[in-house]
Structure prediction request, 390 residues.
Amino acid sequence: MTTLADRSTIAPAWDEQQITLSAATTALLHSIAKQHQLTLNTLMQGAFGLLLSRFTGETDVVFGATSAGRTLRDQRSRSLLPEAESMVGLFINTLPVRMQIAPQSPLISWLQQLQTAQSEAMQYEFTPLWEIQDGLNRSGTPLFDSILVFENYPIAPALLQSDRDLQITAVQVTEWTSFPLTVLVSGADQLTIKAKFDRHRLPSDTIDRLLQHFEILLEAIAQNPQKTLSAFSLLTSIEQQQRQDWNQTEADYPPTTIHQLFEAQVDRTPDAIAVIFADQQITYRELNARANQLAHDLRSRHIQPEDRVGICVERSIELAIGLLGILKAGAAYVPIDPSYPRERSDFMAQDAGVKVLLVRGAIDSGCFNLNMPIVDLLTFEAAQPLIPIP
Prediction:
């Protein structure tokens, strides 16, 4: 599981930002929820969970969600309390919502599973948060650092009629929580998403980007709800262009070979150490000279470009000499593990069409029963550097 921000002892600096969805997007979201027998609350919770998953890089996210508490049940009998609607008071409770984000899951079926889980969890809507923490052996430890509040309380149509003597205007509501991030969703014809946050834990530009991505995600869901979770993009047009620009890394690469690149490094740092193995080391100049000797020897054995040369050598400086010498001769190398049984090594060499076999020491040469030249790499010394193979 993951939470959005680490707890801090610094006094909070509260701020808020908000966005408003278009009437068309809002209508489509209502239609999708109705068509697939979902609540708009479930749809918003699913979108928020997916948003947190993208921002945190986790597939297991948890956040808080509020319950109005108006489907009152007695905590002992779990029976409905029919007098709930006539009671005055606040019954809201905040409970953790945990989501598993399976990237290849279709959005609609995933939301339906989420709604089923939420319905089953309603039996715990009166459970205090501290009791849930105790049950999880996390007493005193926050279960989440962000909450989603979906406000859908009705307004009596009579209060909205303009021909009444009494009119209510310029209504202001102040709502704060103790969490670093609270996201409130409200509205009918146009959904408004308001983020209330602590600037010490979440910078304003982060919240601005989060709200932009939330809006893009909801618009994408409204346009095509049949996608899988991973198929929804949260990027703005500017971010998409940036990603495209960053991925344009194609560049012309000069036509060259590995051994030519190595020879260029020899020219730059001839006396630098090229290979270290155990207590041995060899410079670029020495390695190049010994590989040149081997390449000339292979050419004298009528090795042609694209011929195959076997190399049965343990990790060592000679292994580097062998590989580089084969490439300098224009051939291809066929690696054979010295620990293989003789029958397998013989078969690999014959099946690959090996024309010459490189070994390290006379003992290795006895591991084969082949009718082909076997060259011992220990016979090539650096005392006679040769002209590089073209």
Observations:
- The two ends are 60 Å apart (CA to CA).
- Residues 204-223 form the longest helix (20 residues).
